[in-house]
Design a protein that fits this description.
The chain is α+β, with helices and mostly antiparallel strands. It is built from 12 helices and 13 strands. The strands form 3 sheets. Strands 3, 4, 5, 6, 7, 8, 9, 12 and 13 form a 9-stranded mixed sheet that branches. It comes from Ravibacter arvi. This is Dimethylmenaquinone methyltransferase.
Length: about 325
């Protein structure tokens, strides 16, 4: 019992990979990942990661980074954003389910253990281990790697691996590190990358230390199965159990802002009226406006009603 608790603690801290007896593992077990993300009560992928719905991921792409960040901040999650990226297609947005990878400076004895563990797991032995996280990707996954901001001799993918990533995930990558062959990556239709720099060099003197372990991406702590929203302004990592609340709260906030701006332009209310807690008259006006909304609301009527009956808008 004590040994099991110690192993789980090591996984949670992201300091080491879990052990089964004395055998090193590349990826935590399904049970370890489930324990690590225990607040999620919904469907899970076969590897244990939370599997948030495709519908919520599609809606997530349409909300702003600021709105998502604000909801997380209010819930006590202050370390979920990282900015200052180089982006291949900066005007595109990406959302998905996170697959994490941890890279470290090369240490031969540790690298040999990882290679041996991968061999026992049936992972490919040809080439470098940066192909291993790609092997686990499924449709809707985003490959998120901590490359400790290494760019020169730290390029985690070029266009060959980029094509493989997109074929498996229909998404792109978020690398706290470098990439190469940017011209080739740009030609992969639908693929995008948030990274810290480009360089013509290959990987050298760095090693894969784990897949689907907790990682740090700049200012953010990231767990396997998090939802991610990546846009021009940066990247927000959202714990799976908070995704639904983040999405609908952000959607309502956007509608509230749209209503407020419209009424201010019409001169119906003063800025003080809109920026403070709304009166009953404004709240009723907002609800009437929602019922006559000229476009398609992003949420269902039931979601909207359930949310609003608990709030004083």
């Amino acid at each position: 019992m004590l040994k099991d608790k110690c192993n789980l603690l090591l996984v949670s801290l992201g300091l080491m990979l879990p052990f089964s007896g004395t055998a090193q593992k590349v990826t935590p077990s399904k049970e370890d990942i489930t324990s690590l993300t225990a607040l999620w009560k919904g469907e899970r992928s076969p590897d244990g990661r939370p599997r948030v719905s495709d519908e919520l991921l599609e809606r997530l792409r349409n909300i702003s980074l600021e709105e998502a960040w604000g909801v997380l901040r209010n819930k006590g999650y202050h370390n979920q954003y990282e900015g200052n990226w180089t982006i291949i297609h900066p005007d595109s947005a990406m959302s998905g389910r996170v697959v994490t990878a941890q890279y470290m400076p090369m240490r031969p004895d540790y690298h040999d253990m990882i290679k041996e563990a991968g061999k026992k797991d049936g992972r490919g032995q040809a080439g470098f281990t940066n192909s291993w996280p790609i092997e686990v990707l499924k449709d809707g996954d985003v490959y998120v790697a901590d490359g400790y901001q290494k760019v020169v001799d730290g390029t985690l993918i070029g266009d060959n691996l980029g094509n493989s990533i997109y074929a498996k995930s229909k998404r792109g990558v978020i690398f706290y590190g470098g990439v190469r062959d940017v011209a080739g990556l740009t030609r992969i239709e639908g693929f995008n990358a948030w990274h810290k720099g480009e360089d013509p060099s290959f990987i050298k003197d760095m090693m894969l230390a784990g897949i689907n372990v907790p990682i740090r991406i700049g200012r953010a702590t990231v767990l396997p199965g998090d939802a991610v929203l990546a846009k021009k302004g940066g990247v927000v990592f959202i714990p799976a159990h908070l995704l639904s609340e983040v999405v609908i709260t952000s959607e309502i906030t956007a509608l509230r802002d749209e209503f407020g701006i419209k009424r201010l332009k019409e001169g119906r209310y003063s800025p003080g009226d809109i920026d403070s807690q709304w009166s009953e008259a404004i709240r009723k006006d907002f609800l009437d406006w929602l019922n006559k909304y000229p476009g398609k609301l992003p949420m269902s009527k039931k979601e909207l009603d359930d949310y609003l009956k608990e709030r004083n808008y």
